[in-house]
Amino acid sequence: MAEAYDVLVLGAGPAGYVAAIRAAQLGLKVAVIERRWLGGVCLNVGCIPSKALLKNAEIATWLRQRAQESGMQGENLDADYVAAVRRSRQVAERLAKGVGFLLRKNGVTVYLGEAALVAPQTVHVRAAAGERLELRASHIIVATGASAVVPPGWSTDGERVLTYLEAILQERLPRSVVILGGGAIGVEFATLWNAYGSEVTLVEMLPRLVPLEDEEVSAELERAFRKRGIRLLTGHRVEAIESTATGARVTLTADGRTLTLEAEQALLALGFRPNSRGLGLEELGVALDERGFIQVDERMATTVPGIWAIGDVTGKLMLAHVGSAQGILCAESIAGRNPPPLSYEHMPRATYSQPQIASFGLTEAQARQRGYAVRVARFPFQANGKALALGDYGGWVKLVVDEHRERLLGAHLIGPEVTELLPELTLAARADLTLEHLARNVHAHPTLSEALMEAAHLALGQAIHV
Q: How far is the C-alpha of 63 from the C-alpha of 154, rounded, in Å?
């Protein structure tokens, strides 16, 4: 007889495990089915280990560039990449164990194996040990995530042509590498490998790096990357990629010209496709878009009653914290609560390159296209005492403001630790606070967060330190 639950969650990534825990807290009987990793891609081979590696890269870069002015010797720095990778694995493994503990603590049953929906309330599981199970639930949440895009006709071998998965696990440091894609993954790996001495070429089909960010952020990042010796080829289309006896060969075109690049490795960082196929969703009538993302309403419900979807598989905004927020909302909707819908435009976005990038809301160009009377204020970190003390003072805080209402439409930051500065701004936007509120919110001195207050003063025409 099939084991019965109130809620079955397919996938234990940041969306799935959070939904399971919240549902259990609300008194529901919950189980999770996970194919590979508790904590999902983000915790095991994405967000978390990459940040551990990038911290090592930050230290190596600082020692090479700033050590002498601080009275230290950094010329003969020996940065051990293997040790950095192993530390990143230890961090990921520790957190994965923590997810398992949290699920047990909240009474969530975990099944390891492959899942498929055979009816709106029935899931078959092929467990890791080979046995087959049938589970039933009144509600099924699909949180199966996404995988790296590999275009038709291309192939990866894990040695010369890689996706993020092979790149983050390998202990080998490439002497030279071509990175295809100038989004978050591309610029983070460019930061990492350049810091350890690799010869890095970064290719982006669109005219600028991080093309979803504000144009001025892209320009500032490109200046910083060129200064570090990273070769940038924006506006270049990839025509072919192949493994060779010695590495990888990439063929590009731009303005009618063809360019061939040779490197020890090539990294595909071209985006993600949803893990929605082979689950039985289409057979049950669950609507997918043309790319395979599951269609959901503001409660995370699909077109089939009792089947829900959260996280990257929905394609709403493919970020771990967005998936977690969707998971909480979904669990509360199932439990009969009435949680407020998510505003994806107000979701924080963070890129951990050097310099870091953080943003939310509308870019300056988007705000003008929507017809807003726009006021822009930009406060440089060169005028921030903490940034100067850290020896890391490139970049700025840029506020995009509705001229008439004096409310934030968006914010775009590039510079030291700016990914830590977003919550005050997103909270201000959600709470409909004015520039006056931001400017009069007293910040400890010296802190990087003072730049937010200073930018608000600047937007009000009351600049103090510029």
A: 39
Q: What is the dihedral of CA 223, 228, 231, 233, to 10 degrees?
A: -20
Considering only CA atoms, which of 154, 161, 219, 222 is closest in space to residue 190?
222
Cβ-contact 145, 44 below 8 angstroms: no
Query: Any idea which residues carry the catalytic annotation?
Result: 445
CA distance 350 to 356: 8
Decide if domain 355-459 falls under CATH 3.30.390.30.
Answer: yes
Rg (CA), the chain: 24
What integer best gives the mean pLDDT of the chain?
Answer: 96
Specify the DSSP class assigned to residue 341.
P
Q: How many helices (H) and strands (E) does the chain have?
A: 14, 21
Residue range 3-45+86-148+273-345, CATH number: 3.50.50.60
Instruction: Find residue 231's DSSP bridge partners.
Output: 201
Global pTM value: 0.96
Ranges of CATH 3.50.50.60 domains, the chain? 3-45+86-148+273-345, 161-270
Cα 282 from Cα 24, distance rounded (Å)? 28
pLDDT tens digits, residue range 269-288? 999 999 999 999 999 999 99
What distance, in Å, lies between the first and last C-alpha atoms of the chain? 72
Chain segment 209-252, per-residue pLDDT in tens: 999 999 999 999 999 999 999 999 999 999 999 999 999 999 99
